[in-house]
Amino acid sequence: MSREIVAGVDGSPESLAAADWAAREALHRGLPLRLAHAWRWEPLDLPLVQDRADQEHVADAVVREAEATIAGRYPGLALTAEVIGDTPVAALLGIEEHAEMIVIGSRGHGAVTGFLLGSYGQQIIAGATRPVVAVRSRDGDPAEPPTGHVLVGQLGSPEDSAAALGFAFGTAAARGASVRAVRAWSLPPLFAYSPLSMRLADDAGGLVPYEEKALSDALAPWRERYPDVPVTEHVELGSAGQVLLSASGAAQLLVVGRRAKRGAAGPRIGSVAHAALHLAPCPVAVVPQG
């Protein structure tokens, strides 16, 4: 089965903005778009009349209104829409197998919301095996500049960042945009200086050239695969979250990687992705490693 882009909708302006962004991305990539609304009949233990048929009608109206809006804006788009009888997290994760990416809404500065309320957005991002894009909204319109580069954070080894870099280059190629790759670094504590690490740094001409070479090496295979995508490289001393956020003002998309982490409360998305999702002014793509 061919890939598709999946967007969660819930009737809110934020989710409609996410659907709009997903529609344009689907056109860039020549992929179909699937709109999904999660609804499951769960009668409340209250002395109220609860009509299942009415609630089903409301759920269907949500997805049909989103479908009509997107179809009207993008008449050439291959588009489907459906109501999924499940919780929001299970609904999106249950259909991600053939998804190129999942797109959800984000309400201004703060926690990821939109298709999801409370912690649902974080649960989807933490549990997804495909990239998840959180689209910020201003009055229902995506907060995305019409031009700009795709900004990507490169952390660790080339293998550590391969998935994020691949997504960033593929997105830039589809959009005719450039890539700006950023690597943040910090001075390690004195006890972390091993003879081997110091020799590698000395061979590179110092710590800064060592970090610059690490970034260049990580980008090399992607430059070769996407020779028509312009690339700029930036290495800066500081925390990864701070460095990426300071560079995100002119970006049309920020791409960060996510390692599989589990905490006492369940899956975690990592501090860099958390900072980007809460504070970046542009859409943020969180790409699981490997």
UniProtKB/TrEMBL annotation:
Species assigned in the record: Streptomyces exfoliatus (Streptomyces hydrogenans)
Entry similarity comment: Belongs to the universal stress protein A family.
UniProt name for this protein: Universal stress protein
Domain UspA: 1-136, 149-288
Alphabetical list of InterPro entries matching this protein: Rossmann-like_a/b/a_fold, Universal_stress_UspA, UspA
